[in-house]
Structure formats: C-alpha cells, structure tokens
Amino acid sequence: MVLAHERRGARRVRDERAAIPRRAVVDARRVERRRRSERARGTELLMSDWWVHRLWHFDPIVLFAWIGWVILSITLHELGHGVAAIQQGDDTPRRLGRMTLNPVVHIPPFAWLLFAVVGITWGLMPIDPRNFRHGRLSNAIVSAAGPAVNVVLAIVLLAAAVLWDKYSTAGASTYGAVLTILEIGGQLNIVLALFNLLPLPPLDGSRILASFVRPAERLFADPRISNYAFAALIILAFLGLFDWIFTLARWLETQFVLSLGALLP
C-alpha cells in the first residue's frame, strides 16, 4: 500500500512537472494570438484611414475619378508651363523631352509615393528664365500658365457637367457616374488653380509675385526658403489647414453651375 501510494505520488509530481511546460506553451500561444489580433486590428485601422480604402468603400467611381483627374490635371498643368516657356523663348522643356503627356515624366518618384499614401502630389517642368525674351514679364506669364490651364479645364468640365445634367437621356447609373466624374474633375482643377496661386515657394504664385516685387524675388531666391516653405506646405496640408481652399472651390463651382444653368433653355 505504501509503495502504491508512493507510485501515485511520483506520477502526480511527474504530471505536475509535465503540465508546467504545457501551460507555458499554451500561455505563450495565447499571448501570440493576442498579439496577432492586435496587429490585425492595427492594420485594419490603418487601412480604414487610408484614402484609397475610404474612397473605395464610399464609391469606386469617386476613387478612380480622383486618381485619373489628379494625374491628368497635373500633367496638363506642367505642359502649360512648358508651352508658355517655349513661346517666351526658352526651349528647355523641349530639349529635355518634357513636352509629353506621359505623367511619369512630369511627376517625380517621391511625389508618386506621396500620392499613393495621402492622395496628393505635384509635378515639375524645368525652365531657364535666362532665355526669356521679356524677363520678368515672361516669368510671370510662364508661371501663370499652369494655373490658367487648370481654370480652363475647370470651366470645360463644369460646363460639360451642366449640359449633361440638363440634356442627358442616359440611365440613372450612367447619368450619375458621368456627372460624378465631371464634377470631381471640375472641382479638383479649381482647387489646383487656387492652391498654386498661393504666394508661397515653390508654388506658381510665389514666382508671379517675385516677377513684380523685388524684395520677394530676393527672398524666394534663397533655396533654403523654398525648401522650408515646401516642407511647411506639406505639413499644413496634412493638418488640414488648407481645407478653406476646398470650401472656396465648392462655392465657386456652385456659383458657376447655377449661373450657367440659368442661361440654358
């Protein structure tokens, strides 16, 4: 009886010792599952805040319209600068092969990355003001050409939206999709025109201002000022401090659409 009792006690000790690593394994697995769950929730939250994810779930048409119009509008904006520069005597855009509709040529790699992350981007058009025929006046004309292209695009697209809304006989889904695409393009180009006319380097508005105000020209000529201002623009955009531009763009869009609609029979 004593031996049997001792054997049972020994087995119980062995079982308890064996249970300790098993419990440790179970606890470790439970902790790992909890960590994976937390990582999954973090990824889900990140995805839910990503602009592509939000627009896709809101309306895929809005997402594709935004992507298409941003790329096309910036490409045409930069081509506007290039055409104006050539007309003013600077052949740099043509010599460097920048007079093309290929957006990869106009939008730098980091700008593509930023576009993928936050939905905003920019383009570049190389020019050499030393070649301009009329100096400061030419510089102002070339700088204003980009925003002017956006204004023309906005007018054309919003006018097309008004005409489509008034005279279209398409079905409900086609009608809504086309109207959405036209309105997004129109409003986006108003935003691009307003934003680029801000008198902050490296935006077009700063070059226009520098063409007529010598102190501004000397200030903006410092590359450090341009770099700091550019970084500040990105930070302010992230913080939503340029939302007033979108508000103003919506107001201008509404006024244009109502005015044009009132003129149509």
List keywords for this structure.
12 helices
Please, could you describe this protein's structure?
The protein has 265 residues and is mainly α. It has two domains: 1-49; 51-263, no CATH class. It has twelve helices and no strands. It has helices at residues 2-49, 51-58, 60-87, 92-95, 103-106, 109-118, 135-167, 172-196, 204-212, 214-220, 223-238, 243-263. Helix 7 crosses helix 9 (204-212) and helix 9 (204-212) crosses helix 10 (214-220).
Secondary-structure topology with pairs:
Elements: H1 2-49, H2 51-58, H3 60-87, H4 92-95, H5 103-106, H6 109-118, H7 135-167, H8 172-196, H9 204-212, H10 214-220, H11 223-238, H12 243-263
Helix pairs in contact: 2-3, 3-7, 3-8, 7-8, 7-9, 7-12, 8-12, 9-10
Instruction: Please count the helical segments.
Output: 12
Domain count, please report it. 2
Estimate the helix proportion, in percent: over 70%
Average of the residue pLDDT scores = 86
What gyration radius follows from the Cα positions, in whole Å?
Answer: 30 Å
Low-confidence stretches: 40-46
Number of strands: 0
| H-E string | HHHHHHHHHHHH
Can you tell me the overall shape? globular
Largest sheet: none
Class from helix and strand fractions: mainly alpha
Q: What percent strand?
A: under 5%
First-residue to last-residue Cα separation: 111 Å
